Structures are given as structure tokens and as C-alpha cells.
Amino acid sequence: MASAEQLKALLKSFIDDDDPHFMAVAMQVAAHEAKLGHGKLAQELRDLIDEAKIRKSGNLQSRKLIPIAQPRGELSSLLSVIYPKQRLSDMVLDEHIQNRIERLIKEYRQLARLRAHGLGPRRKLLLIGPPGTGKTMTARAIAGELGLPQFEVRLDSLITKFMGETASKLRLIFDSLAQVRGVYLFDEFDSIGFKRTSNNDVGEIRRVLNSFLQLIEQDNSDSIIIAATNHVEVLDRALFRRFDDVIEFTIPDAQLIISLFKNRLAGFAKPNLAWSRLAEAGQGFSYADLARASEDAIKDAIIHDRRQVDEDDVIKMLHERMAYRQS
Length: 327
Known about the structure:
Oligomer: single chain
Radius of gyration: 22 Å
Strand order of the largest sheet: 1-3-4-5-2-6
Mean pLDDT: 83
Number of domains: 3
Strand content: 5-15%
CATH topology of the largest domain: Rossmann fold
CATH class of the largest domain: Alpha Beta
């Protein structure tokens, strides 16, 4: 249920005919419902908000949002592109991390205003932490919140054995950054951010890293650059000062485990489900593992004509994932 302040804000923005503010407050209500575990209601509210935006635009074709600029020529092998539907409200994040992501989004939305004062928004983000803790999903949620396409750099095509070719391809990507606004994700970033003093260092990798350092420092485009890695320990230290923010993701604690299960099991959780037992069973698992165990438990209930999921159903799926991880 919306708070009293949110209801007043909705009414005031309606009276003032302030559509952007009305939509923003409505999205806050949807996010609040998602955090309470009311996933279905939150999605219905977001769908209604999207429909309202479409009708206000007077153009039904805007259901497709902004046409994605498909990479052409050599870029087509270097970048893959999607238009994410994810929102921050779809995620369960540590409050400190969520506040920093929200700050980036707020600054970016005020890009023109900040630049009028000679300032720029945070645009260059380094995400570090173990696999499955939400780094890639965060990149998608940022793109979804801002209505931008997400371009993912295809490292298998970027890195080649031919001297100078990788650095040349990297320049093509940064040219695209300047020409096509979007969220550009360098996943598994340690592949190109390897320490230059490493014993495994080779000349080509050193040249690629030097090129990246120069290009990211010179970049003043309107695009967002996100680099993500599971191996922060191998990154060259010179990289860190090139990013506006470095955010560390961790395995969820008991409170976050419960929040994630409540979010994912919304509409299927058995009344009086033993959340504390699930929190204990979920210790040490990543967000991705917990989410998949929840989805597997729901799918199992559906195909066996059960309407509800209890803690034993989820714990069973967690045990299966543990066996898979150890195999």
C-alpha cells in the first residue's frame, strides 16, 4: 500500500499536470510493493505505468520503445545489443549498493542540468565481486531504468592474437560509445584489465590495457560504461581511478536471503512459511543460485498441480544446486 506521502505526491502531481513526477512516484510505489514481496502487484503497476506512458505519447508504436541501433560492419561482431526490461525493483540488493546505483541513475537523468554547471554525472562504473551476486543484472537494470539499449562487448571477438588488432577494435567500441548512447558492459573485465606487472603478461595484453586506460580517460560521451569482474585481485591498479565509482557485490546475508525469497516466491509461498529456516539453508549461496532455486521450486509445484511452495520444496532445490556446484 502506498504511504501517505506518496498518495499526496500522486494527487499533487495529478493536479499540477506534472506527468513525469506522477510516473516517478508511481514507480516508487511499485518498487515498494516489490520489496514487500508483492511481485505480481508490482509488475501490474509497472505495466499500467508503461501503458500510461504509451497513451500519453499518442503513439502506439512506442510500445517498441526506442529502436535499437544495431551495430553494423565490424562492430556487429564486437557488440551484442538488447533492450532490458529489468528494473531495480526486480532486484534484492544491499541498501548501500542500491543507494549508489540509484545515485548514478538520478545523476544521469539530470545530465543536462549538471553539465550546465560544468559538472558531469557518474557514467563509469566498476562492479566487483563473486559470480552470481548481481553485477550483470545491475547493468541491465540501469539500462532498463534509463530506457537505454545495453551493448555487451563480446570479448571473444575483441581479443585476438594479432598484434595491434585488439587495440584497434577497442577504439571502434569507444567510437560507438560517442555515436550511440547506451549502457556498454565489459563483462569478465579482467580479460583486458590484467596487471601489467603480472608474470603472465604479454605485449599485446599490455597494449590493450594501455589503450583502454587512454580511451576511458578521454571518453566524455553520454554513454554509461560498466566493467564487471569476479577477479578484482588481478586488475591493474591504474584502472581504479579511471572509474567514477567502484561497487563491491557480496554473497547475501540472512536478511537479504529472506528478502530475495519473499520477492521470488510472491504468490506461491505457503502461509507462515519458515523464512528463518530458509535463511539458514541459503547461507553461502549467491543471489543467482537463490533465485534459480526459487524458480525451480515454483516450476515443480506447477507441474505437480500444487498451488503453494513450502520451505522443504526450496531447500530441496538448494541441495540440488549444491550438488551441481560440487560436481
